[in-house]
Batch of 3 targets.
Target 1
Amino acid sequence: MEALLTSTLVVALAEIGDKTQLLAILLAVQFRKPLAIIAGIFAATIANHFLAALIGSQAAAFLEGDWFRYLIAASFLLMAAWTLIPDKLDEDERPRMRNGAFLTTLITFFLVEMGDKTQVATIALGAQFEQVALVTLGTTIGMMLANVPAVYFGEVVIRRVPLSVVRRLAALLFLALGIWLIAETAGWL
């Protein structure tokens, strides 16, 4: 349960104001087909985060030892800093609107998520918990918790939610996870 709940919370907070959330808003404005966009986000996230959790889990299986746990902890600390940097959707990442709402969302979401902080967090969570299914499920739930409201309420949500506060909360969560993992590995807990 810890893997599921932690993965959900980490990704839900990290996704607020992220470029994939901005992409969800852009797609919602362009297509005005929320169910197709939500289905595309879900499918892309399951595929992307399954691969990320699998990579993290496999890395943990091969790279056992305290040094690897410290490396995972350091990745959470770096994620804390990265989360404080606001995202923007670059012009070359804007979706091309030829394939319909579902397919455009599926492809663009999968590609934009590559190397994104939520994907990196999923790799780290997969390495920490070594439970691919629960991490994938948790991170997918987190993505949906952050993106479904963005699809339906789009720009209204962005104007009303102070993203700087949410980014700070997400950064604190990553910081706490990093410190917790260091303390656990060092035997302090």
Target 2
Amino acid sequence: MHALTFSLATEADIPALVELVTSSYRGDASRAGWTTEADLLDGNRIDPEVLREDIVRPRSRILLAHRDDALIACAHVAEQDGAGYFGMFSVAPTAQGGGLGRIVLTEAERLAREDLGLATMRMTVIDVRDELIAWYERRGYRRTGIKKPFPYGDERFGIPKRPDLRFEILEKPL
């Protein structure tokens, strides 16, 4: 296995990021990995304009992981309400299950702690994603019990297939 290289996204990376994130979560391609949301949501996983705003916003970084010059994973790290926010975490479906996600998560936490000077990382996870939540718990995140509504009706974030989706906030001290 070749080494990963990390960089930060620019606006030129938007098309590749949209493709990676979509393939990791939606449609038949996502079923090759274990993080698929294909049974929960259709449509977009990321809106290019929202992504552009995240790239240019101060104290917001899109972390890219490459192997052999191919984009293989990404994550969004930003300051939000005085803590780190971790989102848009995507690993190419055919590369999942081999420890790559753990390496990218560790680098994202380092970025939040060292580059942004943040002491806590938070994320939102769809609360019916038990296997995914358990994966984060094994990496030190804890369920806060704080729930947020899913943005039903805003198709920039997908078309729900169920009426009971909501987010739960997970948190970890850095």
Target 3
Amino acid sequence: MQSDLPFSQACENNKAPILAVLQQAFANCSKVLEVGSGTGQHAVHFAGALPHLCWQASDQAMYLPDLTERLRRVALPNLPLPLQLDISTDALPEQQFDALFSANTLHIMPWPVVKQFFSRLTALTTQQATLCIYGPFNYNGRFTSDSNKAFDLSLKSRDPAMGIRDVAAVVALAAAAGFTLQHDHSMPANNRLLQFFRTGA
């Protein structure tokens, strides 16, 4: 239907299992910010399935034209047009969100940008907020599969600053921002969905 727009097969493959987690994780939330919305396939699917949420997509300027067009075509009432947001350089939205979602971004961001992402969470979220991060992760410095190891080598061949992150390091950054890990969900294709909750100032 939208073959003229960028398409991610991975998004098509993982949107259903991710949604199954978000349905309970975001059940009591009202406004979610998605960081790194990419093609917009996740935003469209999740906003359509979670009508109680206002789903705010965002991404870097280079991805906005196609992302905006996909969202414009579906015209869901709870899916506003995307915001420009490079987490390392752009000013943050003035509004705050009680939910935040990001998929397949931490291994693309250089590690200093990952740290920036977590350091800015306090300004982006309300005092009680849920954070869900999807993607591949290592445990105790070890890959969970040969395919993840090969993927990590591929990432580092593009940019040595990229790579699959260790869960412990991510949890530590989240804790410093006031977010506590609640669930570590096993997902298909050797991925995880880390679910955090923020309480207090």
